[in-house]
Amino acid sequence: MGVEDLQIIMAESLKSALKEISENKDATIIANGTDMMPRIRDEGLKVEKILDISALDKELSYINVDSNLIRIGAMTTVSEIGSSNVFNGSLNAFYEVVSKFGGPQIRNRATIGGNICSATSSEDFIPLLMALDASVVLQSVNGKRTLKLNNFVIGKRSVNRRNDEIMVEVQFSKPGDDYLSGFEKIGRRNILIINLINMAIVMSLKQRRVNDVRIALNRVSGKVPGRARLTEGFLNGKEIDGNIISSAREKLAEELKLSSDFRASADYRIHLAQAILEKLLNRFREGV
Amino acid sequence: MSNILISVKVNGTEREVLVEPEDRLIDVLRDDFGLKSPKEGCGTGDCGLCTVIMDGKPILSCITPAFQARGREIVTLEGLNNDPLMKNIETSFRDHHAAQCGFCTPAMEIMGYDLLKKVKKPSKEEVKVAISGTLCRCTGYYDIIDSIYDVGGTE
Amino acid sequence: MSVSVESYITDLQKKAERGELLYIGKSLKRIDDLEKVLGSPIYTNDLIPRNTLYAKLVLSKYPHAWIRSLNVSAAASHPGVHLILTYMDVPGINESAAIVPDRPLFAHEKVRSTGDIIAAVVAEKEIRAMEARELVKVEYDPIKPVFDPIEAMGADAPKIHEGGNVAKHIRVAKGNIEAGFNDADIIVENTYRTQFQDAVSMETETAFAIPRDGRILIMGSMQSPHNTQASVAKVLGWPLENVEVIQAVTGGAFGPKSDETPGDVASIAALGALKTGKPVLMSMSRRESMIAHTKRHPSIIKHRTGVKSDGTLTASKVEIYLNGGAYASLGVLVIVRATFHANGPYEIPNVLNDGYKVYTNDTYAGSFRGFGAPQAIFAAESQMDEIARKLNMDPLDLRLMNMLRPGKRTSTGQLMDDSCGLPECVDAVVKSSDYRKKASEYSNQGGKLRRGIGIALLHHGNALGPEGNDYAYVHLSVDKKGRVHLGTGLTEYGTGAISGLAQIASSVLGVPVEYFVIDRPDTDRHKESGPTVASRVTAIGGNASRNAALKLRDRAIAVASKLLECPLSKVKIVDGYAFSEDNPEKMVSWDEIAREAHDASVDLNVIGYYMAPRCSWDDSTGLGSPYNQYTFGAAIAEVEVDIDTGLFKILNYHVAFDVGRAINPKNVIGQIYGGSVQGIGYGIMEELVHINGQVINPNLKDYYIPTSMDIPDKMTPIIVEKQGAMGIYGAKVIAEPPVVLPAPAIRNAILNATGGSVNDLPVTSEKVYKALKH
Fold this sequence. Notes:
Chain A is an alpha+beta fold.
């Protein structure tokens, strides 16, 4: 019968949201709707029941630093991340994600929780959070559980959320001061793009050698985001120079299994990923 | 189908309105409140022309469900037309011929207003970034950028 | 005090010496933008009555199929639905084509593209109509489709229409092409391809209709209200005069709103309104618009050029195949302009151009800013750089050697008179960009980032030429308060051109433009003035506006001479004051003149008319002088390319146009900025992708137009003025030409930077990367 039967459940608090989702397991959760609304309106996505958690911004919009753990509430908007000073220094890549994320108006509404749960290759925060080995916190009336992000995002538009859970937080250990981070995104224009490829790297260098490197892309295999483990393994312990960079580029090409579409060919996507890798490694080598 | 009664403050006035589940904020503003400055250029959140201010921040009313406006405060260009800063922006748009077809103008002015509220004298680069989520097909942006830039620092 | 009065009078006397050029060439503010900056309700969708119903389209699922059955009953019983319209509901002729009667309003029996309209659902809310259209059941028997225009011309290609797949063929033939190739030292052959571009006017096509006692009122977004009136009357089977069409303020147009889609939306709204007795709005969603309206034709353009080793062009043979999609639209005229301009702005003694507009099963293409010139000039100007490369010559020198100048002839044999300002345009951009220095700097670069500089030139035949009778009417009417109401069947859709008509009338009258009010174009009130296309408002409408103002001025002077008690020949009107040359201290204001005219029963309502001289074109010889005058332009783009990835940015863009005379220079610059950025989009990012006849990216998420972050940091527009023979005060057209030059200039700059040739648009970084790898 289409969307005319659309039922909206509006949660005014986390407590009521958890109760509602436990009683309405078939409901689709929407945060601020920036991803979901166009899909319903323009792409014919059929939804019959919506649990609206937009009012949970009062409880779930925060960026907390507890000793070494950074905790970001699921309803924190992209703009709020951009205007926080928590990410100065080793987490600078957060600001790079923000500056290339949608447009300013979208940034005022898109949430980090929505970004993760939408789970598409165009969700810019996923690679960076994967590179940080982040975890998501899922809550139900029965309590909380914590799941590694790479175990949570399992495919295009597919996440490991039990149908009575709400994702409430993303958290990760703050990297040490010896770490650097970077993010690059390439599309067919400079902003408001569906990216052809993006990549986040978090890395520490000791005596010019790679001490720890984590590389994540929005696409590693098909359209699924993930880590470039082979390349990471190759780089660990090496001193970065021109030869190592070109070998790392080869490794990356080996492990990326990408697909072509009308936006770009798989080959070109891989080549761009290689170029981003080189650019970020060179940047880190210069200590920025 | 069950309609939803929401209260929302619009351009300074508390309003109550019955919305349908599928209604978007832009529908309520245009059809129920007669505020026509937010335009639908795409309906998918990709052009920025439906920009209004919600709780102090510019957002896209075409991808905001109407029920999510409950308890929020919305300001449209109509609500800013007497604001001295907005008046300066509007004058500057006219001086620069920055409104050609005019369809993106309200959104562009709101983005300029939002920037100038935060940054008294923005650079041209900052202006470009501020309007980067709002598409214009007539001007090539140059005259719009100059319009906003020139209001900076005038106070 | 007396000093300032004296100086004021001296000032007026001085201004009077400018005569009717009083306000010409001044960047006066537009008189139509106050409501725009205030966000006032002035556009079609802002103006609908409260009880309006909403219509939404059901489009074909197949690019080529027989319609086996059509069942609307489930949709018709959906809550809130009032009506489903199909071909059976058309009381008049089910036909919505502009020139060639090949396109039904509602598909009947057969669909030829996925843009074909099967039905329209009319409901109380837009969302109800959107839900219900999913319930319209259509069964199809697919027919083999064809998507490539050259393939479609083949003998065994599927027939899209009776009568074959070539909608139009035109030939330009000059000299002896074989002799020309025999004279050549080398021959350069290349094939160029261009893509579908969507106009993306920020407001989509929209109209509403209100039934009124045996008549119908249409208000909508369009370029040519009288064409919309004719479309609606045909569909309703009504006489023209029963259909009133008013153009609402229009949120961008760029050509598609002069083609067939405005007639579609108005006709559907009208049918719905008559059947329901209520106002009906048919407003296209972005998706509907991008699938169902006309776009810029994709093209395949084959160039074969003969050239002597010193760079002299001896022969140019060009074949243009425009993929027209399923219908002819105004595309049968687009191919004409493309073929006339196919060799670029050069004198070549031997020319043979064949242009074909071909039917395929893609969605249809038609009118769009530039009208065939962007495709033609991209190919021609790319070819010039390929020739220069073969000859190891600087591309600028090759152009200087062959380009049009006074005394030279175009490919159709038209003689260039003194108004050919191409050399001045080239000179201006070469200086502004410091071309010579940069070309030598960039000839020897190493490293990953390489810079390049590229040039492109154009000539652009003005106004309709062979496309139709080039005339216009302008109504001027003075009310008793002195306000001058300007009305015309020509329309404003963003350029400021109608404000420009007021500026011209104001200048002739000597009355400040602030006195002017622009009436909404209305078929009941304003005479048909031809379509608002081909950038013709200022050049052609300007003459009509002047003619109206001259009549009005005579009448106003008669009134003033009575009030001033002086002879007619002595009266001057400047800045809204009339005075006698002999006694300038005695003045009467325009307000007083208007009041006196009103009281004394002097009619201050006039209509000005202008028709351009006929142009010559002979289909049998392939020669003629198809345009009364030409605009000329030159652009230089500077780019920086990352040769590892092919990613590039445009650093500078210098562009000069010979506009004859800039009536309002600020508006001219506005057209150059906006057209150039639309042309940059065409050149490097825009592409409406069709796969098997389906539009893959009919949305602004995946169809990229330039944002504020994509424009060159510096754009330098330059105005050159070499007055033309036809346009008002020598003005030439400017709305279209700017969109033409960026694609070839950028493409040539990338070639200069990298040695890689990209011969198909858009020039994406991936194509640059692949061109580098060879």
